[in-house]
């Protein structure tokens, strides 16, 4: 006899767990399959910076218990300058946050199976009807959701999202103590989340320091292994080498040490225009779908918003006496993603790519541009406001714009 649920979700990260939470609250039978063992969930190596803002905290009722530190400012650094934006944020204890989401879903009736690696979709008449996991185990559902992040075994098999490896960003991060958060030569990072644009440290990407309390911080960097990275990269250096190089060259880390018992936190994400995110009986959510904000990622909030949009779409598709999980009906999720999750995505992605193409001296000028245009500029840019982007554009940026256009034509 076939084991069957209303919805099967691959992946118990923020997106998958939030989707299960929403669907279970609507009384659907939901199964979440997670690769990691429950005893180790989530592994240290699978953590992230987990920085978010109050809109996410209140919108998803995230409790104070999973917050390492509330921050007052977002700081952008360039090689020789910085800009401070007053905005309350929260640095989450990511492991406890993910465990809380799982507990929330279970309390509402969702079923979780750990040590359950999803390997392939089960197809009948050209449509997905379930998934295989742990070799030959099978489970069937009216709707299958891929929330596995960049691995995306189901989305890739179904040719959803059009994921390209050369547009995948990789990142590494450690937790440190002994960090000088208020060094005389730099911005005051006490109670701040800082992002630094500097190709010397993160060629084709950015680095960060997120204050987690007293003299502790999450410190990391990421970059996309594309043409921009290759232009600025140092021969023979990988991502761990760049982090060590930063630690050795920045005086804020003179007395810093990795916190005992913590490991490297590694992750990746796709930075590209998303293709379709759904098809018959299937949706992709969270980091499985490419998305990024220009000047701060905030992937947690985006992932959870995509989960909520998918849950609402599934609810609509499964409610009638005769459920309709056709591609046409589930395309409502794509519409919600573009209107609610990542509005004006193309404009925001354009700003992101332009940032990574800009040389270091342009980053110094950007700090001055942000000071002269006002506090709302960052919010407008992250919202995809092309007029705000235009405010930061100078005639001297023409070579960057030409290079951007050339790269877009090559995609």
TrEMBL record:
Keyword Membrane: no
Pfam family, one: GGR_cat
GO biological process, one term: phospholipid biosynthetic process
Origin superkingdom: Archaea
Cited Gene3D superfamilies: FAD/NAD(P)-binding domain
An MF annotation (GO) of this entry: oxidoreductase activity
Protein name stated in the entry: FAD-dependent oxidoreductase
The species this protein was found in: Haloarcula taiwanensis
Lineage: Archaea, Methanobacteriati, Methanobacteriota, Stenosarchaea group, Halobacteria
């Amino acid at each position: 006899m076939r084991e069957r649920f209303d919805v099967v979700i691959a992946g118990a990260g923020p997106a998958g767990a939030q989707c299960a939470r929403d669907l279970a609250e609507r009384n659907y039978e939901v199964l979440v399959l997670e690769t990691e063992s429950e005893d180790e969930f989530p592994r240290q190596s699978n953590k992230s910076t987990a920085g978010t803002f109050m809109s996410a905290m209140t919108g998803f009722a995230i409790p104070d218990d999973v917050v390492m530190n509330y921050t007052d400012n977002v700081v952008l650094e360039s090689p020789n300058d910085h800009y401070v934006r007053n905005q309350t944020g929260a640095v989450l204890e990511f492991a406890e946050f993910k465990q809380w989401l799982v507990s929330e879903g279970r309390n509402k009736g969702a079923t979780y199976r750990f040590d359950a690696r999803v390997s392939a979709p089960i197809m009948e008449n050209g449509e997905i009807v379930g998934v295989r996991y742990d070799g030959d185990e099978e489970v069937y559902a009216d709707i299958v959701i891929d929330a596995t992040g960049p691995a995306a075994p189901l989305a890739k098999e179904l040719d959803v999202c059009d994921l390209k490896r050369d547009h995948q960003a990789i990142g590494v991060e450690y937790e440190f103590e002994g960090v000088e958060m208020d060094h005389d030569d730099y911005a005051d990072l006490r109670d701040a989340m800082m992002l630094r644009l500097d190709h010397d440290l993160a060629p084709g990407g950015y680095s960060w320091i997120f204050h987690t309390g007293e003299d502790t911080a999450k410190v990391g960097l990421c970059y996309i292994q594309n043409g921009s990275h290759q232009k600025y990269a140092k021969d023979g250096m990988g991502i761990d080498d760049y982090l060590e190089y930063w630690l050795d060259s920045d005086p804020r880390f003179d007395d810093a040490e990795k916190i005992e018992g913590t490991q490297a936190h590694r992750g990746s994400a796709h930075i590209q225009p998303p293709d379709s995110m759904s098809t018959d009986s299937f949706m992709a959510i969270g980091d499985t779908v490419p998305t990024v904000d220009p000047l701060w990622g905030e992937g947690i909030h985006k992932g959870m918003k995509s989960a909520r949009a998918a849950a609402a779409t599934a609810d609509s598709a499964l409610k009638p006496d005769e459920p309709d999980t056709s591609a046409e009906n589930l395309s409502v999720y794509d519409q919600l993603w573009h209107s609610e999750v990542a509005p004006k995505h193309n404009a925001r992605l354009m700003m992101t790519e332009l940032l990574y193409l800009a040389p270091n001296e342009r980053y110094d000028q950007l700090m001055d541009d942000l000071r002269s245009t006002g506090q709302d500029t960052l919010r407008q840019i992250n919202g995809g406001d092309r007029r705000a982007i235009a405010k930061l554009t100078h005639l001297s940026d023409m070579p960057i714009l030409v290079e951007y256009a050339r790269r877009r034509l090559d995609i």
